[in-house]
Amino acid sequence: MAELIDGKAISKQIKDELKEQVAALKQQGKEIGMAVIQVGNDPASSVYVGNKKKACEYIGIRSESYELPEETTQEELLTLIDKLNQDDKIHGILVQLPVPKHIDEDTIIKAISPKKDVDGFHPQSVGALTIGQPGFVSCTPAGIIQLLKRSGVEIEGKECVVIGRSNIVGKPMALLLLRENGTVTITHSRTKNLKEVCKRADILVVAIGRPKMIDASYVKEGAVVIDVGIHRNENNKLCGDVDFDSVEPVASKITPVPGGVGPMTIAMLMHNCVEAATMFGE
Ligand code: NDP
């Protein structure tokens, strides 16, 4: 039976540490501000934005909310970002993705100052991670490193296999595991012998976007399995990319869905915002 890695508890621990740090900064007269921008009213985005605002409130970060209509032009959005880039009271800028189709996502990501890029999506942030310099790291993979470390999983020297090579999860995940001295393999839809490659893993991170695809036949006895996927199953219940019931008896540690990786993403966003204020703020 695998030990559950409790993302809810670990994210609460991180948020409580940040809350203390933010309170101490307030005593020195420093208030942290984050701008949260949503264009249009996609219901899933509204839920994410709402959760981010709630987390800010819990930690003591002042959040400024910009709910812009669907028909907002790219120019209007860029003007707002430019204004927030210059605003000393704002330390982090978050544009909830996806943006409507008439707006170019890459242009928006590049418009955010790298000093306020709390999502870690700016090419400068990604480049810094690649060459081992300080910078903001994409929140989901950063959260997974915290889950591993705070659950006592050693990464150094371990065989780490990441399934998925997206810019927001797979690639930064692989770079972070490498930074922690893991021996890292990235796999994707063109990988041959996926099962054999996955079976080598001491640490298997699954970010495919396919419900329950990974069963016990992909997992080495005693491996640590991290499930990034989020889906609704036929009964409208949440499930991941890992077939939990099949893998749990084989793994040594495993993240559940929900309550594993999910809660860590917001905790790390808050962490990045505090870091933005302490590294770059006035
Ligand atoms: P993407 O769709 O951007 O990437 C999926 C990756 O999986 C691609 O690299 C793709 O390969 C690979 N892949 C797809 N099918 C296969 C297959 N059959 N065999 C091997 N590899 C395959 O997804 P994301 O990285 O954005 O997200 C992955 C999952 O994580 C989703 O379920 C998403 O909802 C969830 N997620 C959860 C978050 C959280 O906070 N918990 C945050 C972000 C995402 P190729 O490149 O060749 O197409």
Structural description of this entry:
The protein has about 280 residues and is of the alpha/beta class. It has two domains: about 30-115, Rossmann fold; about 140-260, NAD(P)-binding Rossmann-like Domain (Rossmann fold). It is built from ten helices and eleven strands. It has helices at about 5-25, 45-60, 75-85, 105-110, 125-130, 140-150, 170-180, 195-200, 245, 260-280, and strands at about 5, 35-40, 60-70, 90-95, 160-165, 185, 205, 225, 230, 240, 255. The strands form three sheets. Strands 1-11-8-7-5-6 form a six-stranded parallel beta sheet. Strands 3-2-4 form a three-stranded parallel beta sheet, sandwiched between helices. Strands 9-10 form a two-stranded antiparallel ribbon. α2 links the parallel β2 and β3 (about 60-70). The radius of gyration is 19 Å and the shape is globular. NADPH dihydro-nicotinamide-adenine-dinucleotide phosphate binds near residues 140, 163, 208, 210 and 265.
Strand order of the largest sheet: 1-11-8-7-5-6
What would you give as the CATH superfamily of the largest domain?
A: NAD(P)-binding Rossmann-like Domain
Q: Cα distance, first to last residue?
A: 50 Å
Poorly predicted regions: none
Number-wise, the strands total 11
- At CATH level 3, the topology of the largest domain is Rossmann fold
**Helix/sheet category:** alpha/beta
Any idea how many domains?
2
Tally of individual helices: 10
CATH architecture of the largest domain: 3-Layer(aba) Sandwich
What pattern of helices and strands is seen along the backbone? Answer: EHEHEHEHHHEHEHEEEEHEH
Beta-strand percentage?
15-25%
- Taken from the alpha-carbon principal axes, the silhouette is globular
* Integer-rounded radius of gyration: 19 Å
Can you list the ligands bound to this structure? NADPH dihydro-nicotinamide-adenine-dinucleotide phosphate
Please tell me the overall pLDDT. Answer: 97
CATH class of the largest domain: Alpha Beta
Helix content: 40-55%
- Report the sheet with the most strands, covering strand number, pairing sense and barrel closure: 6 strands, parallel
